[in-house]
Specification:
There is one protein chain. The protein is α/β, with parallel strands linked by helices. Helix 1 crosses helix 2. The two termini are 32 Å apart. The relative contact order is 0.20. The structure holds 1-O-pyrophosphono-5-O-phosphono-alpha-D-ribofuranose, hypoxanthine and magnesium ion. 1-O-pyrophosphono-5-O-phosphono-alpha-D-ribofuranose binds next to strand 2, strand 3, strand 5 and helix 3. It catalyses: XMP + diphosphate = xanthine + 5-phospho-alpha-D-ribose 1-diphosphate; GMP + diphosphate = guanine + 5-phospho-alpha-D-ribose 1-diphosphate; IMP + diphosphate = hypoxanthine + 5-phospho-alpha-D-ribose 1-diphosphate. One of its GO terms (cellular component) is plasma membrane. It is a peripheral membrane protein. Its EC number is 2.4.2.22.
Length: 165
């Protein structure tokens, strides 16, 4: 999907992300306990911290995967690049993988190939990637771009009436 295919925008505030990541933690209480979390950086770091706090998990490893924004356009996907692997021995049984979202599912596919037995959880899911996730909270359409709070800042906007003139 090219960057102009995202014709809807879904901005997420810190409060909303915190609430939805907590809802994810609630769902995961039905699945755990877990030995630890593998956060997929960078997007999975904040959701992983919230889930770790709620489930009293102290051990957090990371796997660094990048694909979007490598050509300078944040919404343009490039090749999957595993920049740093996690340090878990085995196939991930008993571990929880956390990411902010699954979109095409390519990141999830790459991480699942490394940790096929771990439980994969995301806060948001789009339809193409949904089958690769074990637990998620909110689904958005494939043509929606989610704007996370770390990518946003408050700005003045014109009233709706002036936009419709
Ligand atoms: O399902 P996919 O189509 O693979 O997209 C989902 C991935 O894309 C984003 O990460 P990105 O590669 O932009 O890196 P970042 O987490 O460092 O922002 C997001 O955080 C997911 O990890
Ligand atoms: O909708 C999205 N928002 C932010 N990052 C992303 N990476 C893939 N899809 C998205
Ligand atoms: Mg990511």
């Amino acid at each position: 999907m090219s960057s102009d295919s995202f014709n809807k925008s879904f901005p997420v505030s810190w409060e909303e992300l915190h609430r939805t990541a907590k809802a994810l933690a609630w769902r995961l209480t039905e699945v755990g306990p877990f030995d630890g979390i593998v956060a997929i950086t960078r997007g999975g770091l904040v959701p992983a911290a919230v889930v770790a706090r709620e489930l009293s998990i102290r051990i957090i490893d990371t796997i660094s995967v990048a694909s979007y924004g490598v050509e300078g356009d944040d919404k343009e996907r490039g090749r999957i690049n595993v920049m740093k692997n996690c340090e878990i021995a085995g196939k991930g049984a008993g571990w929880l993988i956390v990411d902010d979202l699954v979109d095409t599912g390519e990141t999830a596919k790459a991480v699942r190939s490394i940790l096929p037995d771990a439980h994969f959880a995301t806060v948001y899911a789009k339809p193409a990637g949904r089958p690769l996730v074990d637990t998620y909270v909110t689904e958005v359409s494939q043509d929606t771009w989610i704007h996370f709070p770390w990518d946003l800042e408050p700005r003045p906007v014109e009233p709706i009436s002036s936009l419709r003139r």
